[in-house]
Amino acid sequence: MRNLEPKGVWENFYALTQIPRPSGHKEQIASFLVNYGKSLGLETLQDEIGNVLIRKPASKGYEDHPGVILQGHMDMVPQKNNDTKHDFTKDPIRAYIEENREWVTADGTTLGADNGIGVAAAMAILADKNAVHPPLEAFFTVDEETGMYGAHALKGGWLQGKILLNLDSEVEGELYIGCAGGVDVTARFPFEPVDVEEGDIALRISLTGLKGGHSGCDIHLQRANANKLLFRFLKVAVAEYEARLASVQGGSLRNAIPREAEAVITIPAEGKEEMMQLVDEWEDLFIREYDGVEDNIHFTATDIACPKQEMPEDVQDFLIHAVTACPHGVYRMIPEMPDVVETSNNLSAILMNGNCVEVLCLTRSSVESRKEELRQIIQSAFAVAGAEVEFSGSYPGWKPNTKSRILQVMKDIYHKEFNTEAKVITIHAGLECGIIGRNYPGMDMISFGPSIEHPHSPDERVNIATVQKFYHFLTAALKEL
User: Which of the chain's ends, N or C, has fewer CB atoms near its CB within 10 Å?
Assistant: First the structure.
């Protein structure tokens, strides 16, 4: 991988794959970037939360040009297949080139090309003594994937540049000028466990093999949500087959469509054969429903030792009804741009922590009032079920500016370099531009990157040819700005 072109980008990206950097574990990667900047003899700063800023003086003759900021985030989404042994806090990513020599991917885990390629490109520019550019700042934020905490903590006056190039987009040839805002919704169901009925047995019900994906970029693809499918089954199993819920776990991250979910249920011993048959029937149903969308659905039931306690029946029923009622997926498209999602919700994780079940959602919209509308709908679904509902991590969208000077410049450069037009679009995923723009009013911003497929899932991969094209475009743009 380190011998791919542009070599500086791939060498840096390889180095990043060797540093554990899941969200929430910023120390190693932040220290690496600080040392990198200092090793180049460049002014290197770090703020209280861990964001890193590296400044490189302008090339000769560019001293009076407006300063440019290259911006990306340090962290990656930690997702792996259920049969992959990997500790994201300790183990390097096992990246490799696919046999067709067109893509780089990872062995059973997310790759971290989101946003490792953008960070690697900025690092390459910093190290390239032949690169031509205005006064340059490389700004690397922490914990973007779990709440954009680094961008939220950015103080006014720290950045000096007037133009920001966000390197965190995932389709080459597209220039992003706007994105959705978001808010985290958490519903909690505390309970006191009750004893399992004497003579009952336990089964582990597991749903695996779904594609998952990015809850912004992929939400319109109609992929299956493991939590929603599992709870569809649980509703029938509880209502019609005397099942009781002992434990449940599904998904792990707010910004990833859940790929796997499992529950431990108890049933009367004489109902085992019927329940096993029911699981087989639902597996067939799921496969038929998602034909052409999902190609590896596995829904299974296995014997396990019977737990001593389970959820009380009323809490179990309230939880099942609320998850069933909670919306997931696209809520509304942008009327003026019918191919672009305006508002959505990702019912992302159901986590059982002791005597409490937490349901996590990430609600996105490019229209603040629509975000509020969907947030209230979700709150109502859980509030009527008696859950405690909390909102956190709200961040603004990035309002498109079609009259942006940098947009026209970048369009012209793209056409000049590749003899084709770049697409100008807004994105439903969250970018840090909206938050940075709030702290730096008037900052002219645009986002672009190489082609990355299936981010936030173990199928993540980055196209090699587009990395070369992306870096060529970046260097050409810096020369013109």
Answer: N
DSSP, collapsed to helix, strand or coil, labels residue 28 as helix
Q: pLDDT tens digit string along 187-222? A: 999 999 999 999 999 999 999 999 999 999 899 999
- CA of 474: how far to CAs of 43, 118, 128, 159, in Å? 22, 10, 13, 20
Q: Is 144 an active-site residue?
A: yes
Beta-carbon count within 10 A of 243 CB: 25
Give the DSSP letter of residue 367. S
Closest residue by Cα to residue 146 from 252, 223, 228, 50: 252
Answer yes or no: 184 catalytic: no
Residue 295, CA distances (Å) to 118, 219, 258, 277, 454 in order: 31, 17, 16, 22, 15
Per DSSP, 222 falls in state -
- Residue 29 sits at φ, ψ, to 5 deg, of -70, -40
Q: What is the pLDDT of residues 379-403, one digit of tens each?
A: 999 999 999 999 998 988 898 888 8
Q: At what angle do helices 7-17 and 464-480 cross, to 10 degrees?
A: 120
Full 3-state SS string of 417-477? HHCCCCEEEEECCCCCHHHHHHHCCCCEEEECCCCEECCCCCCCEEEHHHHHHHHHHHHHH
- Backbone CA torsion sign across 454, 448, 431, 119: positive
Nearest to 144 by CA among 340, 363, 345, 393: 393
Q: Sign (positive/negative) of CA torsion 274, 279, 282, 287?
A: negative
Annotated active-site residue in 75, 143, 172, 460: 75
Class of residue 155 by CB neighbours under 10 A (exposed 0-12, middle 13-18, buried 19+): exposed
- For the chain, the farthest-separated pair of C-alpha atoms sits apart, in whole angstroms, at 84
Helix (H) or strand (E) holding 213: strand 213-214
289, HSE (Cβ side, Cα atoms, 13 Å): 12
Nearest Cα residue to 204 out of 240, 250, 239:
250
One-letter amino acid at 472 equals H
Of the residues 114, 137, 143, 144, only one is catalytic, namely 144
Q: At what angle do helices 368-383 and 313-325 cross, to 10 degrees?
A: 160
Interval 272-316: pLDDT, tens: 999 999 999 999 999 999 999 999 999 999 999 999 999 999 999
- Residue 93's closest CA among 16, 10, 29, 3? 16
**Which has the closest alpha carbon to 358: 217, 207, 216, 187?**
187
Pairing of strands 174-179, 461-463: unpaired
The position carrying tokens 């969308």 is: 293
**What's the rounded Cα separation, in Å, for the pair 442 and 468?**
31
Q: What would you report as the CA-atom Rg of the chain, rounded to the nearest whole angstrom?
A: 24
Distance CA(29)–CA(455), nearest Å, equals 20
